[in-house]
Amino acid sequence: MAALLPTATPTRGPDDRRRYPNRPVWMGVPSKPVQAAKAVTIAFIVLVMLYPFVYVIAMSFASREAAASGGLFPTSFSLDAYRSILGGDVVTRAMLVSIGITAVGTTLSMIFTTTLAYGLMRTRDVPGAKFVLVLVLCTMLFGAGIIPNYLLVRSLGMLDSYWSLIIPGLISAFNMVVVRNFFMGLPAELLESARLDGASDLRIFTQIVLPLSKAVLAVIALFYAVGYWNAFFNAMIYLNDTTKWPIQVVLNQYVVQGSALTSIQAPDQPPPPGQTLQMAVIVVATIPILLLYPFAQRYFTKGVLTGAIKG
Amino acid sequence: MKRERATYLFIVPGLLFFLIFAYLPLAGNVVAFQDYSPYWGIGGSEWVGLENFAAMFNDPQFMRALTNTLVISFLQIVFAFPAPILLALLLNSLISERIKRVVQSIVYLPHFISWVIVIAIWQQVLGGAGPVAELFSAIGIDGVNIMSDPDTFKALVVSQVIWKDIGWGTIIFFAAITSIPNELYEAAAVDGAGSMRRTWHVTLPGLVPVITLLLILTIGNVLTVGFEQLLLQQPAVGSAAAEVLDTFVYYRGIAGGDWGLSTAAGLFKGVIGTILVIAANKFAKRLGTEGLF
């Protein structure tokens, strides 16, 4: 009897219903070859994405013999590479510089971004605010170019100063817009009644607006922190003094461009194989991002969508 | 009125920032019309009219940078642009929410890694001393170094972009896919459409507005290709393959001291880029999508 029923889409057997209770009936179940093809594609993508990370991490822990024998995976374990780079002063100093820049930069960026976003909330009541907003939005359409920015930073006397890594990118217009959109979504009556009760702007900002905006503030702080940590070009052109280099520039010098590794090794230890040293520098430079990643992933997705939806 | 005065205290620091660091450097582009020397400064350097621009278009290196930029941009549009759409469709067709989430967290990851780290990692895996070269020599092909081969460099650049940002790119397409009402799929299925035809006739049309918008913005950005990505790899592959407009400006100007010509190249890129973005946005609006501004 069942064979006589019209079957436009593949019907689901009782088996499938048990396996996929949430799957709508109309969706049908893909044939076995299709499922297999999908599984293979997904496995391939995951492999291509993860293998480089796994290989680099594994090699950074490889012993001398394992590093020499090569292969897709090293087999024996050693901490020598980490002992060496963390015992030398170049990598440790660069890490401290990067941590400092990221911490100070993110803090300042958050202060300036949120205050401007708050100031530009009431474009109707505050004369000139609308104009400033348009001025800020326009900066998303053009950039002055590499040379004029460089000339500006130089004429402000910021070459070889850590400020050159923070001040020129202090406020991202995009982030400011995202924050402002979020602020605008807060209940207007709440802010208005506080205002009528005589609360000052500073009070409204710090005691009402900021506490109610923790979600978006977390997203934006993560955006800034990842940006500061990953910044490379500005540090490369603005800092001539190599002792001021953040980790990304050191990584470029000793790993990507392959400068002699002697200067990043601990002086008092026998040098581990060069390749494991390079891998260890990569791992050390990546760890902070990997630590932030679980938060980032959750919030950034939301952040991107908040930004993508026009407010 | 006194109230508003306090609000200005919130506005002024940010306003000053944008005036000094976004608008003031625009004026620095006058260097493009000068025989600029850092010793004399903008005030003291000689004005040369459009000489720098003339020299620029007669400069084979500039023309090569322009060609490389356009070729890489074109390859990105053909290969890197559709990649996240395909991945989003594939992930969306998965039944298990858990696998979907795990795969997503894996493919998003490289987006957060700096270009320096990405290039360093790729070098370790694909470079002359890495496991891939070793595999090749195991089958008898020695000396393979994908990372420094100028002939395949443009393909490498596009692969790197796909690797780094395919996952990130899926986010926006995912959002568009989930906003397609389920009833449409249901109706299509009732009419006898299988899953391929539902993808073709329901999902893709649902994605068209987002795709149009992003594609047009991408086209508006054709003169910008990954600056740090190219800068980092140019020493390994040479400038014939890896010179693009931004690296040209950097090497000629900051590294080479030819300030006038390099500023002219930067200004050329900036002006064309801004015009393209605005035109692309207008065009998107004419096509009925919302546009960005």
From TrEMBL, chain A:
Signal peptide: none annotated. GO terms for biological process: transmembrane transport. The chain crosses the membrane at residues 39-62, 94-119, 131-150, 162-183, 204-226, 277-296. Residues 1-22 are annotated as: Disordered. Residues 95-296 form the ABC transmembrane type-1 domain. Its main location: membrane. SUPFAM superfamilies: MetI-like (SSF161098). Keywords: Cell membrane, Membrane, Transmembrane, Transmembrane helix, Transport. GO terms for cellular component: plasma membrane. It is a multi-pass membrane protein. It is found in: Cell membrane. InterPro entries: MetI-like (IPR000515), MetI-like_sf (IPR035906). PANTHER family: ABC TRANSPORTER PERMEASE PROTEIN MG189-RELATED-RELATED, POLYGALACTURONAN_RHAMNOGALACTURONAN TRANSPORT SYSTEM PERMEASE PROTEIN YTCP. This is L-arabinose transport system permease protein AraQ. It comes from Occultella aeris. The gene is araQ_39.
UniProtKB/TrEMBL annotation, chain B:
Keywords: Cell membrane, Membrane, Sugar transport, Transmembrane, Transmembrane helix, Transport. The keyword Cell membrane applies. The keyword Cell membrane applies. Residues 66-280 form the ABC transmembrane type-1 domain. InterPro entries: MetI-like, MetI-like_sf, UgpAE/MalFG_permease. The lineage of its organism: Bacteria, Bacillati, Actinomycetota, Actinomycetes, Micrococcales. It is found in: Cell membrane. It comes from Occultella aeris. Belongs to the binding-protein-dependent transport system permease family. One of its GO terms (biological process) is transmembrane transport. PANTHER family: BLL4140 PROTEIN. Coiled coil: none annotated. This is Putative multiple-sugar transport system permease YteP. Its main location: membrane.
